[in-house]
Amino acid sequence: MLKYLIGSVLVIGLSLGPLAAQSSDSIRAAQEALKAKGFDPGPADGVDGPITRGAVRAYQKQQNLNADGRLGAQTLDSLGVKEAPPKTQYKSAGTKVKNSYSEGGKDIGQGSKEMGHDVKHGEVVEGAKDFGKGVGHGAAAIGKGTGHAAVEAAKGTKNAVTPDKDKDKK
Fold it and tell me: Which CATH number is 25-82's, of 1.10.10, 3.30.1360, 2.60.40, 1.10.101?
């Protein structure tokens, strides 16, 4: 019984070895890309530690991706490390629109809240300024996310309709 257990563990370990190496290479490439984009992931050591996850989370937030700190297909594609399949790129476009509209709505809501406070205290002009700032910041967030989404949708469309050059050679 012990022989089978040890044999199974050995087979699983050897099977996962190449995956771990590939994963480490992807993490290292992502760390280098993050550093090049101004996010500090710590040393480019191929280890997905807390500093790297923090840098990934900050990058994801800036790019209107789900800020979960994980190096998933959308994030690796956005970093230019590994191109995601078209379906993932379309999903990323939708995520970016959703997140930017959410952020934009919050900014507009904050401007409205500040306007209400100002008007309540008789400062109508200041209230109008605060509301305008909220709308401006909200519209900027929505526009930025929509722009990022358009880029992802275009990449997905291009990759869906452009034949894979490697497949044509076979």
Answer: 1.10.101
Report how far residue 143's alpha carbon sits from residue 137's, in angstroms, rounded to the nearest whole number. 10
Judged by DSSP in three states, 69 sits in coil
- Burial class from Cβ neighbours inside 10 Å (0-12, 13-18, 19+) for residue 12 reads exposed
Query: At a CB cut-off of 8 Å and minimum separation 6, what does 97 contact?
Result: 145, 146, 149
Inter-residue contact 109 to 134 (CB < 8 Å): yes
As a whole-number percent, the residues of the chain with pLDDT over 90 amount to 30
- What pTM does this model have? 0.56
Residue 15 has a pLDDT of: 44
Per-residue pLDDT band for 165 (boundaries 50, 70, 90) equals low
Q: Which helix (H) or strand (E) segment is 34 a member of?
A: helix 2-36
CA distances (Å), 12 to each of 15, 22, 60, in order?
5, 16, 33
Paired tokens of 48: 């997905």
Give the lowest-confidence range in 3-17, 47-61, 116-130, 140-154.
3-17
Domain boundaries of the chain, sorted by first residue: 25-82, 86-162
What is the DSSP secondary-structure string of 113-143?
HHHHHHHHTT-HHHHHHHHHHHHHHHHHHHH
